[in-house]
Target: Translation initiation factor 2
Amino acid sequence: MNRHKKNPQQNLDTTEIEIARLAYIGASIATLGDGLSAVAAGLALNALEKSNNQDPQNQNSDKSKEVDNLQKQIDQIIIELKQVKKMMQ
Model:
């Protein structure tokens, strides 16, 4: 008769699953953010080290390469976020 009605245990299970799903998404985003921060710190360190050892023309070329590298890494993070989003749907 009332087969579509959920019992309290089913509601609790569903809520716990949703909470776990949100925790997973949050942890994934935080991990990606930490990775991006580490990459940025590494690039900054590399740029500082090179700026002490090179002439100005080479610095511009290296900065351009670093920006391209950072853009590729950001694109990869965006791809991973999209994959996480698809998993959650």
